[in-house]
Design brief:
single chain, about 400 residues, Rossmann fold, 3 domains, six-stranded mixed β-sheet, globular, LacI/GalR-like_sensor, DNA binding, DNA-binding, DNA-binding transcriptional regulator, HTH_AraC
Length: about 400
Amino acid sequence: MAKKRKSVALLIETSNAYARGVLRGIASYVHEHEQWSIYLTEQDRGSVPPSWLQSWEGHGVIARIENQETARVIQKLTIPVVDVSAARHVPEVPCVETDDAAIAAMAYSHLRERGFEQFAFCGDARFVWSTNRETEFLKCVEKDGFPCSTFVDQRHTKRSPGAERKRLTKWLRRLPRPIGIFATYDIKAQEVLDACRECDLKVPLEVAVLGVDNDELLCDLSTPPLTSIVPDAEQAGRVAAATLDTMMNKSRRSRSQLPSLRLLPPKGIVARQSTDIVAISDPDVAEAVRFIRDHYCEPINVQDLLDRIPISRRMLESRFRDILGRTPHQEILRRRIDQIRYLLANSDLTLIQIARQTGFQNQEYMSVAFRRAVGQPPGAYRKERRSVPQ
């Protein structure tokens, strides 16, 4: 007798890139494991749950629980539920979400390495994850002693979109320049870019902007094209599906032993024109940073910088350290390690191939440098980033 398929409801919107990535991850898990009968409703971010859910006789639910209406329905269900929203309206159910602290740190690092010493954050008061990113971004900026201005969209109140747009443009005009702005997601970043054009602010010369989600269509349609952080949405979907699968196959008693929250770090960042600038007043250090940025995947060293910049090694290292807090050698190595992290998590390249693509002479030297910087060997890092609970 054929085994009966489990019925799973997906209360996840299809209106944004992150949610679609989560759905792709769920689909990937389902295709590789047991087939489910999927119930996917058409809804927008924050929509109330469908009326049929309260009496639905399915086996499990994966939901973006982003409002109290959805939370109340979910709490009445007796079947397993996995949440894929940072709002945590139902804290007793397992949750799989992005690591907002890691996203904020990546945003700050990207803007800081371009030489910015003035920062701003543009958020959206409707979403907990936006508030989380604001808090963590401010921590990064304040730790290094730099100023940071914030703007939080309040259109969820009685303010009209037009009034909020005027408030945004007024805020942008008051910002010091040059400045790096971290927008909490791509849609908000696109709004910032549009407002910059209204204010006649030059991007990225005066204002650099980056977002989150890497919605490729939205990023490419932006003017200029938008730099964006890539959250691991598909892995979030896979982990959520695997967690639900475990819950549906175990007793109610053992379900409570599952981890209540799992945070996934971002996959990396796709740099586009909106942050393509080196905002460093020292021309020699700026030239060194540009050269490293363009050639770090090649077997370059500090001497290659000195061949282009007519100052002594001691002087370059001193000025480099004063401005960026590290030496040119450390900057080369930092960029290489970041690229190795990305390739380990997102490609099937061998360690030998990764070493060749990141400027190392051989795999052994790369592995030693990676372990010293990250605290674990490349193979263990790759295994950890690709693990899915069974």
